[in-house]
Design goal:
Pfam families: BPD_transp_2 (PF02653). It contains 14 helices and no strands. It is mostly helical. The longest helix is centred in the middle third of the chain and has 27 residues.
Length: about 325
């Protein structure tokens, strides 16, 4: 077990070193490096929604609002107190905690709802947050209001987004493989049966929802310091559908699928921008939607279904003459 953990960490470090030097050497251009950073930030946010919807079965449409809370809180700290690395870290932590705390407070009343009703409640929360962002200049001029927040220090780098993505995936993986994660999955499969079996369903729904919102806040903080500009429209409730599509496309209950779909969707959108050109850029949404429809027809369970990547499949030798169960 310990050897596998060391090997996993070594592979992650090797992946980081390879991409880092490819960027330094110019093999990965500045433009595509920026797209890669955005893909990893999207991955962080999507893993959060995967915990909420994919593993705990809570249909949430307010994910973009929590993403925005993390972005605005983090950006406010660095803009108000200076763009030093320490303030950047404090901003990320504050944005993550703010999104998690609001998720917890919002979750207390709305997680008693189920299915479509929960989705509508989180949708309403997203609309409220958008209105607050539009009028945020009445709280502080630094927030910009409906004109947007400008002049945010550009501090987010590939190193930050890569290791934050690794941290989020590691946390989500460990949670899913723990008894708490199994309790969340049992709530997703049949909440009434889980309740009868003595599982505190409200507690585990709150756990997944709060953690997922906190991850969205972390992604928002990184996004704010990558583009140096925030606008309330970036966090409108329609943006929540983009993350939801990624989670469904990758396969509900598959972290691997969420990661692959998040990176794939971001790069697909940029490739379509190059292929179609500025004249037909509006058709990008049509092509993207058609690709999703075809994929859902061919693989309604998502790209990965419930499959997860594991080093065991790569390095553990199976006995000849059949698998272990057959040999027994």
């Amino acid at each position: 077990m310990q050897k596998k953990s060391i090997l996993s960490f070594a592979l992650v470090v090797a992946l980081y070193v390879v991409i880092y030097f490819l960027r330094r050497a110019g093999v990965i251009t500045t433009y595509w490096g920026l797209i890669l950073d955005l893909a990893l930030i999207t991955t962080i946010s999507a893993v959060g929604l995967s915990l909420i919807y994919g593993f705990a079965g809570q249909f949430s449409l307010g994910h973009a609002a929590f993403y925005g809370v993390g972005a605005y809180v983090g950006a406010f700290i660095t803009k108000a107190y200076g763009g030093t690395p320490l303030n950047f870290v404090l901003g990320l932590i504050a944005g993550t905690l703010a999104a998690a705390l609001i998720g917890f407070l919002i979750g207390l009343p709305i997680l008693r709802l189920r299915s479509d009703y929960l989705g509508i409640a989180t949708l309403g929360f997203g609309v409220i947050v958008k209105v607050l962002f539009d009028n945020s200049d009445k709280i502080s001029k630094l927030l910009g209001g409906s004109m947007g927040m400008m002049g945010i220090p550009r501090i987010t780098t590939f190193t930050w987004v890569f290791w934050c993505a690794v941290l989020v995936i590691w946390l989500a993986r460990n949670l899913i493989n723990s008894s708490h994660g199994l309790a969340c999955i049992s709530v997703r499969e049949d909440e009434i049966a889980a309740d009868i079996m003595g599982i505190d369903t409200t507690r585990f729904k709150m756990l997944a929802f709060t953690l997922g919102c906190g991850m969205a806040g972390l992604g928002g903080g990184l996004y704010a310091h990558l583009y140096s500009f925030l606008h309330p429209s970036n966090f409108f409730f329609l943006k929540s559908f983009d993350v939801l599509l990624i989670v469904v496309l990758g396969g509900l209950g598959s972290l691997t699928g969420t990661v692959v779909a998040a990176i794939g969707v971001v790069f697909l959108q940029e490739i379509l921008r190059d292929v179609l050109g500025q004249q037909f850029l509006e058709w990008r949404g049509v092509v993207y939607a058609l690709a999703l429809i075809v994929l859902m027809i061919l693989r309604p369970q998502g790209l990965m279904g419930g499959w997860e990547f594991s080093l065991d499949r790569l390095f553990v030798r199976r006995p000849k003459g059949g698998n272990a169960r057959g040999a027994a």
